[in-house]
Amino acid sequence: MENNNRFLKDYLQLEHPYLIKSYLWVCIIVVNFFVLGISFVPHIVLNMQVTKFVFSISLILIIFLDIWAFYIMMDPNKRQKQYTLFTGLQTLIASIILLVVALEFIGLLLGFYQYILPLIIIYILILVLGFRFHKKALKTGYYYKKGGKNSKSVAIISTFAVLGTIFGKVLARSANQGGAYLILGICSLLLSYILELGTHNLYKYYLINKYEEYVELYELPKKDKSKKKTKRINAGD
């Protein structure tokens, strides 16, 4: 079954350049302070070669994402398509980092090695099922039937949020250090699974390049264009 052209055109709508900068700042702050911050904990506590390696790789990847984000912000009008690729890769990288950090907490710090493989399998299943869901949604128009897309996302995120709250309240009763590590591990794991939802932008970027005739780029208003041109002329003088 081919993609429904009308639904596909709506799905391939790009983000407005004026909003891209705001979204990128939020992405940078969240990834830098939360993802990198929580990945620093096992590195400090255990001080093992494997945790050092994980933190080093995480730091390199996040610095790469930061540089890329600033590059897009320099001229978001020309990099609207690239923003879609960025968001897909950023959520994928951040979710993988958080998954590895969660496994460090649960496996290395708490010794629950038997849960490592099942948690990885769940991660892969969410990734595969999410991809299949988006393909099917584009064929059936599910995104645009009674707000299916928004309600689905809100329901999934709300479910994870409720589960996280329940786990947090139960485990917070434990005053020992193991309880704190378990809370951090579960929070990292839940956020990793949530961030997987954003990886659909990788498939969206593929479709953007495949069906370019359905993609409409936003253009700067004439006033903004003239100002930009004037600035360049003055700079040349």
TrEMBL record:
Keywords, sorted A to Z: Membrane, Transmembrane, Transmembrane helix
Keyword Transmembrane helix (UniProt): yes
Protein name, per record: Uncharacterized protein
Transmembrane segments: 20-41, 53-73, 85-106, 112-133, 154-172, 178-195
Lineage per the UniProt record: Bacteria, Bacillati, Bacillota, Clostridia, Eubacteriales
